[in-house]
Amino acid sequence: MTRPPSAPVAHTPPGRSSGAPGAAFSRITGTGSYLPPRRLTNNDMVEMLAARGIETSDEWIVERTGIRARHFADDGVNASDLALPAARDALESAGRTASDVDLIIVATSTPDMVFPSTASILQHKLGVHGCAAFDLQAVCSGFVYALTVADSMVRSGSARCALVVGTEVFSRILDFNDRTTCVLFGDGAGAVLLEASATPGILAADLHADGRHLGILCTPGTVAGGQVSGTPLLKMDGPAVFKLAVGVLESAARAVLEKAGRSESDLDWLIPHQANIRIMQGTARKLKLPLEKLVATVDEHGNTSAASVPLALDVAVKSGRVKRGDTVMLEGVGGGFTWGAVLFDY
Ligand code: UT7
User: Fold this and answer.
1) CB 3.0-4.6 Å disulfide test: which of 8, 92, 141, 274 passes with 308?
2) Ligand 1 test: best mutation among 57, 64, 331, most atoms within 8 Å of CB?
3) Which helix (H) or strand (E) holds 156?
């Protein structure tokens, strides 16, 4: 995954017909996002849980997580339905149309169906056909994994214009009788367009998984014999995940900087997985980054799993904070246990 800017280029894919001759890198040319309109504040969650005889409070949720609101998709609205407007937004911001796309990767743990992939469904909804499309499942690290795979495919020449999407309807797998998890998650989608480029955009990536910890964050149910077998609802040992997340977010950040030949002081923005403001601020502090360089949208989105990083990136781009030329680090962490980081010049 590593290629410092000065390193020799092993393979030169053909440039876009419109330019980028000798393209050897990939670059994010557009970002997009979409949130379903139904917004629930913490007090809405307090009411919803009270009806089930379960106690929670705005104070607890804000103090422990930084979350103030989340969005839930209406019944019948699926991951591909959220992905579609996010994808169109990314295409429009890059000045491209769906027919320019030759690769679609969708990161999701809440796909529309067992198969076909949400990526194939999204391709159909975009009104195009023929390009490669597949889903990637790495839970809350999914977008960082998907961007890394897309970067590799663009740099190898097997794709020139990749649509990379993170989309989730986590509200479908929440246990509303479990206050330790149901107040944390939300629904949404984020997308980027990644195109072949003669100058580096993606600088380096660092991905990991450790299956020994698969039980601390899982939705263990599956479909067998025409029935759901096992629990189809999310289960999390929050404190165990918290402890692991704090360590791996720091190590992945340092590793990806080293691979790219950059240092913490080169970073303009840190956009970590949006699960808990305490984890995010802790990571920024360990990297000695001023908190102004941390992009945090967890307050308004909650934890949207694979959608959280591209959603936060798009919010930061559209609000004018992340600008062309800025150096940005994305980080994911979650079920698997998986984690990783991608460093890029925007
Ligand atoms: O997306 C993948 C990555 N996920 C994460 O990074 C999540 C990581 N974990 C966390 O963010 C935190 O561990 C949580 C936010 C999930 C929990 O925060 P915590 O500070 O670790 O709290 P805790 O689980 O240790 O629980 C503390 C107390 C408990 O009560 P007792 O046993 O001390 O009496 C819980 O029962 O808070 C109680 N509690 C609640 N109280 C009110 C747990 N959930 C709630 C709630 N409302 N919703």
Assistant:
1) 274
2) 64
3) helix 142-156
